[in-house]
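Kindly go through the following sequence and its backbone structure tokens. Advise at your convenience whether the structure tokens fit the sequence:

___
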Amino acid sequence: MSVTGDSGPIRTVVLDFDGTLTDADAHEAPFHEASLGHLAAALGREREGLRAEWRAALAELRSAPPEAAWSVGGQAVCPAHGDPYLLANGAVLRLLARYEIGRDEGERRLLVGQIHSLAYREVPPPFRDDARPTLIELIGRGARTAIVTNSHTEAVCARLDTLELAGRSGLLVRGGARKFELTAPPHPSERFASLPTGLRVPGLARPVLLGRGHYFALLDELWRDGSATPETTLVVGDLFELDLALPAQLGAAVHLVLRAGTLPHEREATLAQPRGSVGAGVRSLLERL
């Protein structure tokens, strides 16, 4: 693991869920197959008749440059091929457009979300091998631990319950983080208002946009009671742009958990942060505590 200039004790650990505690690489094949099945149903096609086009769409996305982005509201919010879920969603969107499903892109994106949810429920993600022992260690150390994720709270809680963790009730889960959305937080915040619009990172021509107000609001909730601050918080994720860029700019320590498909600029961007580190496996975060 590599670490750059850390400072201050860490009292709160904030974990992403998908790709961080779960094994997105192991989930890729079954999730993509489920996505293809639900896409075929939406198009009124046979799965096998659509497979060649599906593979071609995935290959095109995989070969795209780092600047290729998944966009929301016309703004680039993360790499188009940053993880297996973005790849599947991108392929679904392309094929929906090719077959002119939906009145416009906005309607097609809603259908992408529905297909994603159906595939996710059909094949829940497996945990990383080191997820359970890492959570046991965090709970045992008395670290205030929260999971902040785009996924639904109930689905994440159900998956965590399968780990049969002692002290599970103390593990806070906040779903629906909407890290993809660039919007103001629900309540005005000077801390949020002081953020720059974007961040330039090595190896990426476009800026990383920071105004993810719903995500900010969930982080800020953890800091409102005064028992924690950004400076005493470690945020752990597998995508710099979605999980780590915003908290790093707020002063938090950040840790990138590597995957087989981690894009080089995400690793370099994390290490460029004053309190950034990277590691193989979620257990590597324990070295920061």
In short: Residues 25-122 form one domain. The chain has a mean pLDDT of 94. The chain has two domains: 2-23+126-288, 25-122. DSSP finds ten helices and eleven strands in the chain.
